[in-house]
Write a structure and sequence with these properties.
This protein has one domain. The protein is built from 9 helices and no strands. 77% of the residues lie in helices and 0% in strands. The protein is an all-alpha fold. Keywords: Membrane, Transmembrane, Transmembrane helix.
Length: 175
C-alpha cells in the first residue's frame, strides 16, 4: 500500500469498501465454520444464550454476526501501515496465512479470556470438564475442542482468501 495514499484516505488508510469487504468475507467464512461447530460441537445453542435463548437457529445468527464483525476487524488490521510494510506484496497466499493466524488468535482469546470477561455461565462447567480431561482417560472435551480449533483455522483461511479475492477484483481496494 502506498503510504502517501493511505494518509490521504484517513485513519489506517481504510475505506468503507475495505470494511465492507471484511464484513462480507467474515460472514462467508462463518458459514463453513458454523457447519463444523453445528455438527462437531454443541456450541451454537450456547452462542444463542448471548441473545437469551438456547436455539441452534439463533446460534447461527449470533455466530454469523460475530464472524462478520471479526471480518471487518481483520480488514482494519491488514490495512494498518505496519502490517502492510511487513510483507513486500500481499496476495491470496499472504492474506490466507494472515487469516489463519487471525483465526487461531480469535480461538485462543475466545476460549481463554472472553468467557471470564463476560462471566458466561458455562465457563465453570467447561473448566471442570477440562480438569476432568487431565486426570481421567475420557476424551470428553478433546473432540469438541479440536473441532473448535479446526473451525477457527477454516474461518481464518476462508476469510483471508475471500478478502484477498475481493481486494483483487476491486480496483478501489487494491493497495
Amino acid at each position: 500500500m502506498d503510504h502517501a495514499r493511505a494518509e490521504e484516505r484517513g485513519l489506517l488508510g481504510l475505506e468503507a469498501r475495505a470494511v465492507g469487504a471484511g464484513l462480507v468475507s467474515g460472514f462467508a467464512a462463518g458459514l463453513p465454520m458454523g457447519f463444523l461447530l453445528q455438527f462437531g460441537t454443541d456450541l451454537l445453542p450456547v452462542l444463542a444464550t448471548i441473545a437469551g435463548v438456547s436455539s441452534v437457529a439463533v446460534g447461527w445468527v449470533v455466530h454469523l454476526a460475530i464472524a462478520a464483525v471479526y471480518g471487518a476487524l481483520f480488514a482494519v488490521i491488514v490495512a494498518y501501515p505496519a502490517v502492510q510494510g511487513f510483507i513486500a506484496e500481499f496476495g491470496v497466499r499472504e492474506y490466507t496465512l494472515l487469516g489463519i493466524t487471525y483465526g487461531i488468535t480469535i480461538a485462543a482469546v475466545s476460549i481463554s479470556i472472553l468467557p471470564f470477561i463476560f462471566e458466561l455461565p458455562w465457563v465453570a462447567n467447561a473448566a471442570a470438564e477440562q480438569l476432568a480431561l487431565v486426570s481421567g482417560p475420557s476424551f470428553g472435551g478433546l473432540v469438541p475442542a479440536g473441532v473448535f480449533a479446526a473451525g477457527h483455522v477454516v474461518y481464518g483461511a476462508v476469510l483471508g482468501a475471500g478478502y484477498a479475492t475481493v481486494k483483487e477484483r476491486s480496483p478501489a481496494l487494491a493497495g
